[in-house]
Amino acid sequence: MRRKFTLLFFIFLVFAILGISITLPSEAKIRDKILKKTPIGTKFENVLDFCKRRNLKCKSSKNAGYLDRNNKKVVGVQSIWGILEEKKTTPLTIRVVEVYWGFDINGILLDIMVVKTVDAP
User: Fold this and answer.
1) If DSSP states are collapsed to H, E and C, what string results for the chain?
2) What is the percent of the chain with per-residue pLDDT over 90, rounded to a whole number?
């Protein structure tokens, strides 16, 4: 009996995680939406204002860029990062969507990265 319960629980968890990832907009689509609001060339302070207006939990660094997870290179020499969404999707999973903005030495936006994660036990 315990074995059946464990197997059913595991199957439920897999479907819950897959269902969540299928229904979410892709990172690329979210990135495009953010780029429309904060296009390449936007000033550091304007992105901070964007975060404030949207009530996003944003932090910043004037002396470090962000690490692009795809090419493993640092983008910029200044950065802002924030949580776009943090939601408990099931009793065992939390979905987080984060955004990273990278700026040059003059505080001009070079690029952004959006990262989606689903945490589960």
Assistant:
1) CHHHHHHHHHHHHHHHHHHHHHHCCCHHHHHHHHHHHCCCCCEHHHHHHHHHHCCCEEEEECCCCEECCCCCCEECCEEEEEEEEEEEEECCEEEEEEEEEEECCCCEEEEEEEEEEEECC
2) 64
